[in-house]
Amino acid sequence: LTGLSVLQMELEALRSIYEGDLCFRELSPVSFQYRIGESGDPKAFLIEVSWPETYPQTAPVISMDAFFNNTISSAIKQSILDKLMVEVEANLGTAMTYTLFEYAKDNKELFMEKQPVNTVTSVSNSIVIGTPDVPASKKKDKKEQLSKTQKRKLADKTDNKGELPRGWNWVDVIK
């Protein structure tokens, strides 16, 4: 019974803290998602925290399997989860969901520093919108300007060296 009331109290606390926060989503009374970073930020990621029956005496289940995270390499996801688990160990026995979300927010840059998407997007962000044929990007890499969605799809298709498989651009004929 006490375990339930602790969870109930944490649930109420989370609801009141994150009320109106668009980054926070309650998937169920024991499962929550929090988006770290602005929507459209290439370094944004989603953390999902679920409470097993024995929480908070045992660790919550932390997942980064959300579709939102599909551009993040599994190595980075693992490193984020590892860092979060250190926090979990330190907070066992206490209501820690808020602590985990805030810890992730505070350490977003550190978590994502090795995320390769960054280099591609910083190049495109410096280019004036409305002029798709800017030669500046051509010097860096001989690819045409891509939207963020196209870049994400591209990142999914490339191997770890950033090489594209043969025929990756064949669909451009349709344009």
Automatic annotation (TrEMBL):
It holds the Pfam family RWD. PROSITE patterns: RWD. Residues 9-111 form the RWD domain. InterPro entries: RWD_dom, RWDD4, UBQ-conjugating_enzyme/RWD. Residues 136-146, 153-164 have a biased composition (Basic and acidic residues). PANTHER family: RWD DOMAIN-CONTAINING PROTEIN 4. The lineage of its organism: Eukaryota, Metazoa, Chordata, Craniata, Vertebrata. This is RWDD4 protein. Residues 132-166 are annotated as: Disordered. The gene is Rwdd4. It comes from Pampusana beccarii.
